[in-house]
Amino acid sequence: MTTPVQTEVQANELVRDVLRTVAPGPTLDGLDPHDDLRETLGLDSLDFLTVVSRTSERTGIRIDEDDYDQLADLNGWITLLTTRSARRAG
């Protein structure tokens, strides 16, 4: 079952929820929307791919390798998810 992402708040909560499964801990709670996720949370390439995969599974949104550059921080994730969700709904 996929979770619809219609607002920035929903996208933020979903990505944080997925990140908790990969990088749990207090650092995530204080994460700023502009913080580099890999650096701040210590994500390696496999962790990042896990986040991509789980987010895609939960939302039903396809995330391609070409999208990875914009997914360095929460703001990038929020933009991608809300934009793609709007396109799917339209």
Protein model, in words:
- With 90 residues, this protein is mainly α.
- It has a single domain (8-89), classed as Non-ribosomal Peptide Synthetase Peptidyl Carrier Protein, Chain A (Orthogonal Bundle), CATH 1.10.1200.
- It is built from five helices and no strands.
- It has helices spanning 8-22, 26-29, 37-41, 45-59, 74-89.
- Helix 1 packs across helix 4 (45-59).
- The longest helix is centred in the C-terminal third of the chain and has 16 residues, at 74-89.
- The radius of gyration is 12 Å and the shape is globular.
Question: Which terms summarize this structure?
Answer:
90 residues; mainly alpha; Non-ribosomal Peptide Synthetase Peptidyl Carrier Protein, Chain A; 0% strand; globular
Number of domains: 1
CATH superfamily: ACP-like
Helix share, percent: 55-70%
Order of helices and strands: HHHHH
Concise summary:
This protein is mainly alpha-helical and 90 residues long. It has helices spanning 8-22, 26-29, 37-41, 45-59, 74-89.
SSE topology sketch:
Blueprint: H1 8-22, H2 26-29, H3 37-41, H4 45-59, H5 74-89
